[in-house]
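Hey,
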Amino acid sequence: MFKFKNFTSAITRTVAILLILAVSACAAQNQASNVAPKSLADAPEYIIGPQDELDVFVWQNPDLSVTVPVRPDGRISTPLVDDMMAATKTSRQLARDMEKVLSKYVKDPLVTVTVKTFNGPYNQQIRIVGQAAEPKAIPYRNEMTVLDAMIAVGGMTEFAAGNRSVIVRKENGVEKSYNVRLSDLLVDGDVSANVPLLPGDILIIPESWF
């Protein structure tokens, strides 16, 4: 009886999640009055997030040059720079902040920070939900497109209504929705349906009911 109750509870939760996704997709679809733009202004610089891996290079100071992970609290520690906040900064901003600290010990330090492994903060990731083969959040990459995102999640399921898919995007603090033709892109090979993504985009792929 206990196992049956747990099984029933799990089914109920699954159905509830599917209903929420369906309602969200329908709401976003109803609000989407435009197709997704085929070109965008320059994407913002990458924002460092927890679990990123950084290459820190200090010119002419190999002992200070290291590869470090960004801890879950968003901080890093390198030689002479202890517990500096890295998350929410660009690599350029972090390099300048490190130079200020290192200038106490090194004359005219020149620091370069390169993001080696990307993860990014949650609000900068691309989230693909609904009828993707493997729904998940993925790190944003410069010049990432819908096709790149779909490759990362293994495409759509057989139940997807690809051409009713929607990109939900915040623009100047306002949430907007755009139609995207995933079936035309992935099934028919229509590259004109491939559109660029921006950090924080949510791609909703609804289910076809018939």
